Amino acid sequence: DGGITQSPKYLFRKEGQNVTLSCEQNLNHDAMYWYRQDPGQGLRLIYYSQIVNDFQKGDIAEGYSVSREKKESFPLTVTSAQKNPTAFYLCASSMLRGRSNQPQHFGDGTRLSIL
Amino acid sequence: GQQVMQIPQYQHVQEGEDFTTYCNSSTTLSNIQWYKQRPGGHPVFLIQLVKSGEVKKQKRLTFQFGEAKKNSSLHITATQTTDVGTYFCAGPSNTNTGNQFYFGTGTSLTVIP
């Protein structure tokens, strides 16, 4: 089945530690996204990428970093500079068709907590 | 900055009652998407509206895009317990250089059996 796989499902971070969240898709989608969701709130865009080796900051990129070395993969690193990392992280992907907006397909998410 | 607001934030209804959530944008939108997120799950795409005044139906769900393309609504007729979840609208970025969307804050629907 085609889809988006996020791992791990749960992750715990110690003070001063960087952690990396994995996101892989086999939908052959060009665009990939990372969102942060806090309890009772909507989705806020962290980073997105439309093509391999290129990515753009979203609204809350500070304290996060990404890479897009392969079309299928878009890992997110939560650095020690992110002082409030506890949240639900969602990865998504979509096709790109010119200026026509396409539906986003989401993974099951990773819940990150501070130890 | 660009904002997409949703009301209400929470809604509790008795099973069989109707439900409506409203989405308002500070800017004109070229289109709007709606997603549903079940408790503990991830958002799932429901529909996209593109035309001014457009109305689309999916069984008991009716989606509407405002004439000015700055607001949208989702109406559920005769709610069922399977309708439980958070409903998000999402509007594209003003720059629209790619497929970047701004998600509303969502409306969490609880259906009481």
Description:
The complex is a heterodimer of chains A (115) and B (113). Chain A has strands at 4-7, 10-13, 19-25, 31-37, 43-51, 54-57, 64-66, 76-78, 87-94, 105-106, 110-114. With 115 residues, chain A is mainly β. In chain A, the strands form two sheets. In chain A, strands 2, 4, 5, 6, 9, 10 and 11 form a seven-stranded mixed sheet that branches. In chain A, strand 5 and strand 6 form a beta hairpin. Chain A is globular. The mean pLDDT of chain A is 92. With 113 residues, chain B is mainly beta. Chain B contains no helices and eleven strands. Chain B has strands at 4-7, 10-14, 19-25, 32-37, 43-49, 55-58, 61-65, 71-76, 85-92, 101-103, 107-112. In chain B, strands 2, 4, 5, 9, 10 and 11 form a six-stranded mixed sheet that branches. A five-stranded antiparallel sheet of chain B has the order 1-3-8-7-6, with no helix packed on it.
Question: Strands, helices and their partners?
Answer:
The complex is a heterodimer of chains A (115) and B (113).
Chain A: E1 4-7, E2 10-13, E3 19-25, E4 31-37, E5 43-51, E6 54-57, E7 64-66, E8 76-78, E9 87-94, E10 105-106, E11 110-114
Parallel strand pairs in A: 2-11
Antiparallel strand pairs in A: 1-3, 3-8, 4-5, 4-9, 5-6, 7-8, 9-10, 9-11
Chain B: E1 4-7, E2 10-14, E3 19-25, E4 32-37, E5 43-49, E6 55-58, E7 61-65, E8 71-76, E9 85-92, E10 101-103, E11 107-112
Parallel strand pairs in B: 2-11
Antiparallel strand pairs in B: 1-3, 3-8, 4-5, 4-9, 6-7, 7-8, 9-10, 9-11
